[in-house]
Amino acid sequence: MSSESVFEPCEEQKRLVPDISGNALNGLGEEARRRPTPIYWHSPRKLAHGKLQKWMLERTSRLVPETADLKASLDGRGPEERAAKASAPADGTPTEWTAKAKEFALANESDLVGVARMDPTWVFDGYDADYPWMIVLGLEMDHAELATAPEPPSVIEVMRQYNRGTRAARALTDWVLSQGYDALAHGGPQAGPVVMIPAALACGFGELGKHGSIINRTYGSSFRLACVLTDMPLVADQADIFGADDFCQNCQLCTKACPPDAIFREKQTVRGEKKWYVDFDKCVPYFNETHGCGICIAVCPWSRPGIAPNLAEKMSRRQRS
Ligand code: SF4
Ligand code: SF4
Questions:
Q1: Which residue, among 141, 321, 319, has the nearest Cα to 247 in the 3D structure?
Q2: Ligand 1 atom with least separation from CA of 254
Q3: What is the pLDDT of residues 29-52, one digit of tens each?
Q4: Quick check: pTM over 0.85?
Q5: Is 9 in the pocket of ligand 1 (CB under 6 A)?
Q6: Closest CA to 321 of 243, 240, 204, 245
Q7: How far apart are CA 189 and CA 108, in angstroms?
Q8: Separation of 259 CA from ligand 1 center, angstroms?
Q9: Nearest one of 26, 41, 13 to 158, comparing CA atoms
């Protein structure tokens, strides 16, 4: 990453920037593993960057009214009340429940589904998530809408897919409850108790790209996440490594396209893990002024419709040879 940012935030935002760096809160440069600190998309009262987040959400609601009341717009988020839990758990093996849960998810709006065993280091500091399993859901975005980023049609599509993810998670949760197991639904854009990207990586959604989002072998980075936490007995999926990480080593499309030059060109150590990382302090001001930006995932070659499957096959062959 070059030392000079080419984007200058507006004065209104500059006045709201806290003294502490978001990268420090995220654990950039920390060697020890630890739980993530809530930094954005939580209650603003809990966040050092809460005033910035509030400013962004109010501005986006005003300038892109479709996003203002998510419950009532963009096809809604499904009923808020959950179904009653059956009085006793139904019989079934973990393999059977995993197959049934996936079948239900794919028949009820999800495009991707995977199962991850809960890892305590995925739970945000200050939150509890006392469930042994995460069912992770993926919702494809319309790439033509995403490609308008950072213009409003992109954020409208993002919100539409977060709504679809929330509906899918709530429907799956109701089904799990009806089988006599506990479940908790979560859909974005607000964060839940658990970071979803590490769980999605663990359960086979793909590899982390240089732009900080997942690259999937079917949808590239053109999808959003939702999840269900549950105690239904399940079987964990495996990670899917097909060469996206290798591809990123030699590609700079997202780094060159990012207006505030926020994407590191080399992997960074973050809370004990070496990985691709986006500079929070550089990304967020531009993200805020453009209703969620999204340029980096839009320009990623894997995101273009029809590209990812062939590219994944080619990279897999190269890895095997
Ligand atoms: S969301 Fe926008 S500002 Fe943030 S890293 Fe991606 S391209 Fe850069
Ligand atoms: S644009 Fe290139 S470098 Fe960036 S995430 Fe996509 S493949 Fe990786």
A1: 319
A2: 7
A3: 999 999 999 999 999 999 999 999
A4: yes
A5: no
A6: 243
A7: 20
A8: 7
A9: 41
- Contact 283 CB / ligand 1 (< 6 Å): yes
- Strands 223-230 and 214-215 come out as unpaired
Owner of token pair 């197991």: 181
Contacts of 146 (CB under 8 A, 6+ apart): 154, 157, 158, 222, 294, 297, 298, 303
Q: Is the distance from CB of 189 to CB of 41 less than 8 angstroms? A: yes
Ligand 1 pocket member 293 (CB < 6 A): yes
CA distance 30 to 44: 25
- CA–CA separation, 187 and 249 (whole Å): 31
CA-proximal residue: ligand 2, atom 4 (nearest): 254
Rounded CA-CA distance 78/93 in Å is: 29
Q: Whose CA is nearest to atom 8 of ligand 1?
A: 258
pLDDT tens digits, one per residue of 58-77:
999 999 999 999 888 999 99
**Tokens, residue 156:** 């409208």
> What is the rounded distance in angstroms from the CA atom of residue 313 to the CA atom of residue 321?
12
Inter-CA distances, 20 with 23, 106, 180, 221, Å: 9, 42, 45, 30
Shortest-distance atom of ligand 2 to CA 211: 5
pLDDT tens figures, 110-136? 999 999 999 999 999 999 999 999 999
